[in-house]
Amino acid sequence: MAYKTIVEDNIDILVAGAGLGGTGAAFEARYWGQNKKIVIAEKANIDRSGAVAQGLYAINCYMGTRFGENNPEDHVRYARIDLMGMVREDLLFDMARHVDSAVHQFEEWGMPIMRDLEKGSFLREGRWQIMIHGESYKPLVAEAAKKSADKVYNRVAVTHLLMDEAKENRVAGAVGFNVRTGNFHVFKSKTVVCGAGGASNIFKPRSVGEGAGRVWYAPWSSGSAYALMINAGAKMTQMENRIVLARFKDGYGPVGAYFLHLKTYTQNAYGEEYESKWFPALQKMVGKEYLDPELSHATHRPIPTCLRNHAIINEVNAGRGPIHMVTMHSFQDPHLEEIGWHNFLGMTVGQAVLWAATDVDPKYQNPELTTSEPYVMGSHATGCGAWCSGPEDISPPEYQWGYNRMMTVEGLFGAGDAVGGTPHAFSSGSFTEGRISAKSACKYIDDGKAEGIRVTDSQINKLKEEVYKPMEHYKIHRNDIVAGSVNPNYINPRQALDRLQKLMDEYAGGVTVSYMTNDKLLSIGLMKMKILEEDLEKVAASDLHELLRAWEVKHRHRTSECVMQHTLFRKETRWPGYYYRGDAMKVDDENWHVLTVSRRDPQTGAYTMEKAPLYHLVEDETAAAAE
Amino acid sequence: MPTFVYMTRCDGCGHCVDICPSDIMHIDTTYRRAYNIEPNMCWECYSCVKACPQNAIDVRGYADFAPLGHSVRAVRDEEKGVIAWRIKFRNGKKDLSLLAPITTKPWGKYIPQLRDVPAPTQEQRDSQYLYNEPKYIRMDDGGIHTLETNGLKIVEGVQY
């Protein structure tokens, strides 16, 4: 192996992955640790990386306390009902009470936020969303992070976390490789803030061939947040809570602004309203507590997003698809038409490309909607991620063991997709979580908790060998065949990804099985997952780019395994519309009004599953409304 | 494709290679021009299109569902702080030009250097405040939200 080993020592805070969570962490860390050494490792270029790389047209989490709009507890209620109860309310409240300060700073830095000229407030798309011209959202926050960090390593893909050898269960940094030079990078650090991404492309996408990259969530989000943490032995929560999105067909263009601001609505292929038709039967499945259309109407309590998916899925299965978004009325207003297009250009250009290619003019034609393949993430409207300690002044004892946003591995903090149980954080909330993590990490160091960290060369050398193994394997076996991609002794990263996606799709409830699975399917799936893991030891990378893909698929595999374990454990259908357990087709609040927590033993690979209590911090809005 | 490179315009500067979040824009070693090495991992995020000084990179919709003959072009002007879009339909019936601001301030100038701001006090360190708080939450002197100030308490009756 000719690659150099580059060691960066004495780091105080290593930010692994610099999307919105990581940039928030790097920025804030400088304030609480003005003399601390802050280093960023990012697998792409920080200026355009993470889920917000291409921009956003809305900031989806903003309270507006400044304008008397919402308080944090309102947001907790909203996220709780949307996730059918399963959230960490302490973490949600904490994020919500800080998020406005992040947004106000964005505006001060130059983010064009649209204003409601009559009210003087930010122009709202919905109760929680404000509209922005966010093409340069990522470059702006990257600038803030770069100003704070001592060093930014672009194109360094973090593959493993380093573990302290002086004290058990304490993090000591991370390792990775540079996808351009091939050099092996060792970051010895007192703390790590994991800002890596959630998982796209673990389920077979609807698009095939060249279009396989057209997924809803960025294809470079490879579940690294989860794999890094799981492999380090961190406890995970709510990994069964994968999300399915209703989006414009094929392009997966966002529908939020269309529904909320442009006041569009959906109907079936025959122009009929279909949603309410499916609700009586669905109410039997989930209970009145989670689906009460009359109450929703009276209190504006939203119907959980997954349940609206359920109606689409069933209407299509009943043969009355496709579902259409009715745009023809609102698009007669030229201003709204322009917003409709800007909405795509700001964050999902591919949808504009598709409508231009297929001559779909929403002014004269109602475009088709569809449901996406499932995704695993912790920052959008779903709460997968690590089991983190909560804030000192809010959390009940079971949720609090030291430092805010610290995981069950000491010195390891999280933000964005990495933190479990805080859905509806989106971009601004992820940035905020990064800020909270950074303050905690500084405190952890100042309290002397990171003293005496030891990383031996043997750990580093072992990891180095592991990191380059796909290239070694390729070198040894490439001549087993004359040419081509079929080799009896290895698979390439794309072949591995295809197998993973097929497996997840068919056994864990993807698109082709209408999101349905059961205990038997999951058990078979887990067995096949084990065999795929063996084959991943034989994945072959012909160059550095393929080495990157090899590690991405390994991270996706670990994430997927955890998803299957969690889905098997929760013996109920908690979120119909996201997935269905055919062997337990009902919400079972008596046994499953709990958070699920898993831990994978890093030595044996065995998972232990447990139920954690679900505390509600705030009164239900219905009680408040009834008063 | 989805992104592709017009060979006559590309001068091999590598800006696209530098910026691509998916690591798929590479320089062809024979022709010394950029190209997309892995179209099925392209998100059509337009990062490379916006970064190309020669306007040499374009996007053709994904072959598995997008017919040929359309065009969506972007020109991002850092100095003016705007991005210009032009969308042309396949059938030629629609030709839209749209303009949007990308920033309202000169780049980076209004982002504070936190190394130079007054260091936080012990009281701030012990509090729940983040940098610039509480002022920046409500933009007044009001404090941070806590369970007490908002009249909340943990609801009893935890269920397993």
Most extensive interface, chain pair and sizes: A-B, 98 and 90 residues
Q: Biggest sheet of chain A: strands, sense, closure? A: 7 strands, mixed
Number of strand elements of chain B = 8
- Number of alpha- plus pi-helical segments of chain B: 4
Helix content of chain B: 10-25%
Quaternary structure state of the chains depicted: heterodimer
Report, as a whole number of angstroms, the end-to-end distance of chain A. Answer: 71 Å
Instruction: State the order of secondary-structure elements of chain B, H for helix, E for strand.
Output: EHEEHEEEEHHE
| Strand arrangement across the biggest beta sheet of chain B | 5-6-7
Radius of gyration of chain B: 25 Å
Write up what this structure looks like:
The complex is a heterodimer of chains A (627) and B (160). With 627 residues, chain A is of the alpha/beta class. Chain A is 38% helix and 15% strand. Chain A has helices at residues 20-32, 72-82, 89-109, 137-148, 224-231, 256-260, 275-286, 293-299, 305-320, 334-347, 349-358, 426-446, 457-477, 493-507, 519-536, 544-569, 589-592, 621-626; strands spanning 5-16, 38-41, 56-59, 130-134, 151-153, 156-163, 171-178, 184-194, 236-237, 246-248, 265-267, 323-326, 368-371, 385-386, 412-414, 516-517, 580-581, 595-600, 607-612, 614-616. In chain A, a hairpin with a 7-residue loop joins β6 (156-163) and β7. The radius of gyration of chain A is 23 Å and the shape is globular. By secondary structure, chain B is α+β, with helices and mostly antiparallel strands. Chain B contains four helices and eight strands; from the N terminus they run βαββαββββααβ. The longest helix of chain B has 5 residues, at 15-19. Chain B is elongated, with a radius of gyration of 25 Å. The N and C termini of chain B lie far apart (51 Å).
